[in-house]
Structure formats: structure tokens, C-alpha cells
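Hi everyone, sorry if this is the wrong subforum. Our group has a chain we'd like a structural model of before ordering constructs, and none of us has done structure prediction before. Sequence below.
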Amino acid sequence: METFKRRSDRLINNNSTREATAKKENNEKKNFPCVKYVKYGGKIVYLTDMSEIAEAADSLIQWVERQQHVPIPLSFDMEWPFSFQTGPGKTSVVQVCLELNCCYVFQLSNLRKLPAALVALLKHPRVRMHGVNIKNDVQKLARDFPEMKLDDLKHRCIDLGTWCNEINETGCRWSLDRLCNYLINQTVDKNKKVRMSNWHVVPLNKDQLMYAAIDVYIGLVIYRELENRARIKKERL
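Answer:
Right subforum, don't worry. Here is the predicted structure as C-alpha cells:
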């Protein structure tokens, strides 16, 4: 198992909307020249084999069940190849982060089905998956891998953008990068070459691994920041 030290905006079906969003975010970055890029120096656990992914997911389930606090936030994201001719491909990568010092990158390219332990982790009653546009992600994952039945999972997921609007009484449409700018004054490096790369090809390179890990790492950072703001807001009521 290799580890590296350090993603992807959701690929939108409407190509013009996607490009407009990227252009808008680039313009926003020019207006904030002092904003720093997110850096990740923790461990990246990269796995491609069915049995190894299952073993890692089972280990994470055991960790979840040892924790006293609930719910336990699980930062979640996915990557897939995209073609302007054929559209989005099958989900190739699932990445998760439960602690800030370790991110798991599971490449699914060689798998015909999801390991039962990974499904159990994502659906664990003590876990609350979160991300940006996460409900669309889990819907895609369920389409690509039918054993990932949605049940009530879609309704238990926390969309960080929606939550941010509720806490801060805003009405914005958020990307991960915009949330990062707004909440912690940093920016996510959305390198187009990496974002649009071949996520289905094994193995992933170091840039892809870092890109994937940073997305779930900063997702957990944002979750904790929103959780803290929600607590402060409640105390002031």
C-alpha cells in the first residue's frame, strides 16, 4: 500500500454552465490575490483491490463504532472520467475522510460491484456523509453500482452548501472552492488538467491522488467550521 503527501468540481451535464462556473471562480480568485491554496500533509491510503478496499472499510466501521460522539461526519466525494462526446463515465474513484490526518482513495475501476463493507460504511447509522452536491453524487453511485441502494441515505446526507446557507442566512449556490474561500479564506487548486484526467486508469498518479484527497480533507475542515458556527449561533439565541 503506497501513501503520498499532497479534485474535482462536480462535472455538470450542461457544458456551458460548467465552463461559466469555472470562469466565475477564476475571476473571484483574481479579486482575492492573498488567498492561499489548501495544502494537505496527511496520509493518503490508496487502494484498488476489492479485498483491500473491503478490509479498509471494515476497519473504518470498527473505528466508527468505537467513537462516543454521534453522528460521525464522513467527508465524501467521487471522481469519474468525462467526455464531451459521450458525457460522464462510470464512477471510478470514491474518496472518504473521517479524520484530518488520513484520507482514503478507493479506485473502483477494476471492480464489478462495490464491496459490502464499503456500502455498510457509507450507510452506517452512526455516520453522516457530507459534501457539496452530495445527493447527486450518491444518486450517481447508486446508478453505477445497483447494490448501493439509496433507501433513506439521500435524505441523511448533509449538503455543505445548503447547510452554509442555513447557518449564515445566505442564498448562494456553492462549489467546494467557493465555500473554502468564504469560510476559511483559502482556495482549492482546481487544476483542469487533473480534474479532467483519466480517473479510470490504474494506477492514479500523485497529482490525482492529492487532488482527490484534498477534496475530502477540506470537506471535513468545512464541516467542522460550519458545526462550530451552528453551535455559536444556537448559544446566542
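For your construct planning: Residues 1-18 have pLDDT under 50 and may be disordered. The chain has nine helices and ten strands.
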